[in-house]
Write a sequence for this structure.
């Protein structure tokens, strides 16, 4: 979806309506399409300092994600973040402590690391964004810490039937190193 046109992501917007129709048609999908992903550039959940104020504009479609979308991938912040699974329902997001097989465990949100340009290191201060920082599975830092290591890198998703693995790598020169990973079955 295109987050450069945020008005279209509102409940009366064309992209929002498209997503609602697309998710409603899921019974027409082959049985082996068990994993579902969404992507738009500006993430609807973000604890980074650079763009944390603007994320709320992009949340309306996430109300449709519960039990429908496994992962949302975003960028824009240039600071890698993996959120705990979030259930939106009709109110505030509810974080659950683990990823797993139950459909009521929420949608994962991943902000991919900078692909090479201008990696960031600043989290929004906990005093301004405590509810967002509480959703972070990575980086997991105390409220008193506002800076994390900045790095360029990439995230890799591997699917093998009912098993999914997400690995995020930092890259320095030609050396890559796994800095975060999560795997589970459904």
């Amino acid at each position: 979806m295109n987050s450069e046109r945020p008005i279209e992501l509102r409940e009366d917007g064309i992209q929002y309506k498209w997503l609602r129709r697309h998710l409603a048609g899921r019974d027409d999908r082959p049985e082996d399409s068990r994993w579902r992903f969404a992507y738009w550039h500006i993430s609807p959940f973000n604890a980074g300092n650079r763009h944390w104020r603007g994320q709320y504009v992009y949340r309306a479609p996430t109300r449709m994600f519960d039990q429908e979308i496994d992962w949302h991938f975003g960028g824009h912040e240039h600071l890698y973040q993996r959120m705990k699974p979030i259930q939106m329902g009709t109110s505030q997001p509810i974080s659950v402590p683990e990823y797993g097989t139950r459909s009521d465990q929420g949608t994962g949100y991943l902000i991919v690391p900078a692909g090479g340009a201008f990696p960031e290191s600043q989290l929004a201060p906990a005093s301004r964004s405590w509810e967002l920082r509480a959703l972070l599975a990575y980086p997991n830092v105390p409220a008193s810490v506002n800076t994390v290591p900045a790095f360029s890198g990439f995230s890799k998703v591997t699917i093998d039937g009912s098993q999914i693995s997400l690995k995020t790598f930092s890259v320095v020169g030609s050396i890559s190193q796994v800095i975060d990973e999560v795997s589970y079955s459904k």
Residues 14-24 form the longest helix (11 residues). The mean pLDDT is 87. The chain has one domain: 6-151.
